Structures are given as structure tokens and as C-alpha cells.
């Protein structure tokens, strides 16, 4: 085998190694082929904590409408939390104001055989959270879309996520976990105002990455 061929295979090996290092799966919880990218570590930590706290009631604002096809782009959260709910005797409540989003998410969840573990709510998230009335073990905020350039949309999204947290606040207890998506974006991302509010009300940050994971200060 000549030097050129050896160099070629060496370069291919390096390329494959780099791709493997950049591939962030949730294996064995999810198939290795799914790459969750910048959300992988916070999802992994969240699922581990939910298991340790024996969570039963999960609430998500903003359904992940393209399922596992969007693992890297939007996180496929609805499928992830529905699968965790199935394996842990829990239920996921997911709310979205868009009928198209709900229907698309239902199709993806059904394809995974997880529909029995999801309650779907086609409703404004603020109204839904204000009327929920049941203790939440987990709250995932990922509704109002954010824009990297339009500051008016950024402000509206941040204010909406703060309003969502306040609407749900009476249902949160000492063991509740809160995960907020799309935080590592210009001007603080979706969670900027909600996180500032929470830190002033006895919450602490457990992970601060693209997503921010929070728990009560006195939680073990």
C-alpha cells in the first residue's frame, strides 16, 4: 500500500473521529443515530434528575412538531419527554396554540408508540398554565419563537416566557425542575427575564448552556 493511500485512509479516519466526537446522542435512552447537539447535556441531566425525583407530571409549552427529525435543530422534546414518561409511569402535558403544530407532533409521537403518555392541549399557554391546578414536577418552557435580530420579537418572547413561569408558579413545588430552551441567543434568549425573576425568588441554576436548567435553592 503506497503512502498516498495510507494518507487518504488516515484523513478519512480523522474525519470520522471528528464527526463521532461532534455527534451528541442520548444513547441508550434514544437510538445512537439521533444527534441532539447543543441540547444533549442538559437533556441528559434533566432526565437523570427527573428519575431521581420520581417525577410524574411533566408540562411542556410549545410542542416539538417535527419529532426526531428535528433532534438537532429543535430538540425533539415532545418525543423525549413522552418516552421518559412511558418508562417512568408519568404523563406529559404539552400545550401549543397552533393546531398544525399539535397535529404534526401527534403524528410523530404516535409513530413512536407514545400517545398514551401525552395529554394534548390546543390552547394559549398562559391560559392553560393558569388553569392547570395540579402540582408540576417538571416545566419545560419553549413556546414563543425567538428571533436573532428583531429586538421587538426578542422582547415579546422573553416577556411571554416570564408570564408563563408566573402563570405556573403556584403549581411548582420544592422538587420541581424547570428547563428553558433557546437561552444562548442574542440578548439573553427566551429565558432572560424568567431566569432573572426566578433567581430572585429562591431558584438556582443547575446548568447554564443553550438550555438553562433550574431548581429550588433548598432542593437536594
Structure in words:
The chain has a seven-stranded mixed sheet, sandwiched between helices. Helix 6 crosses helix 7 (192-199). The chain has seven helices and seven strands. Strand 4 (136-141), helix 6 (151-168) and strand 5 form a beta-alpha-beta unit. The protein is α/β, with parallel strands linked by helices and 220 residues long. The protein has a single domain, classed as Rossmann fold, CATH 3.40.50. Mean pLDDT is 90; it is low at 9-20.
In a nutshell, what does this entry contain?
By secondary structure, the chain is of the alpha/beta class. It has seven helices and seven strands, in the order ααβαβαβαβαβαββ.
Protein traits:
about 220 residues, alpha/beta, Rossmann fold, 7 helices
Query: What would you call the structural class?
Result: alpha/beta
Distance between the termini: 60 Å
Mean pLDDT: 90
N-to-C SSE series? Answer: HHEHEHEHEHEHEE
Alpha-carbon Rg, integer:
19 Å
- The global form is globular
Indicate the CATH topology.
Rossmann fold
Topology (SSEs and partners):
Elements: H1 3-22, H2 40-52, E1 57-61, H3 77-88, E2 91-96, H4 99-111, E3 118-122, H5 125-130, E4 136-141, H6 151-168, E5 172-180, H7 192-199, E6 203-208, E7 212-216
Parallel strand pairs: 1-2, 1-4, 2-3, 4-5
Antiparallel strand pairs: 5-7, 6-7
